[in-house]
């Protein structure tokens, strides 16, 4: 499995999600029954944009993927709070499921990158051209 390519895909996904959260923060907040928290949604969008840019600037860097895992934890916490106030909102539960799946993928990719970086020929010296 090419974890570097997957991390590039995660970077593009972060950029798209971040742009959506930034541009439609108010609408997303209303849909999640937290209309007073559009600024928080936009802040999360900025975090996603930064995470995506970081991943695209250094694909295959496990630390950069790990920042997505940390962001997933923040998202899960915020969505969990929203679910407490609106337990019947199916969009919240769908978002929780989606973020949980993203957290699993992000974790597996970060671990895969670390594991393959330890293989002979995959370390930093392998990137140096001798020809």
Brief overview:
The longest helix is centred in the last third of the chain and has 28 residues, at 90-117. The protein has five helices and no strands.
Helix/strand order: HHHHH
Strand percentage lies at under 5%
Stretches where pLDDT is under 50 for at least 5 consecutive residues are 124-131
Overall mean pLDDT score? 91
Helical fraction equals over 70%
Give the end-to-end Cα distance, rounded to a whole number of Å.
Answer: 27 Å
Key words describing this protein structure:
131 residues; mainly alpha; 0% strand; elongated; disordered C terminus
Mind explaining what this structure looks like?
By secondary structure, this protein is an all-alpha fold. Helices cover 76% and strands 0% of the residues.
How are the elements arranged and paired?
Layout: H1 3-23, H2 25-31, H3 38-57, H4 62-85, H5 90-117
Helix pairs in contact: 1-3, 1-5, 2-3, 3-4, 4-5
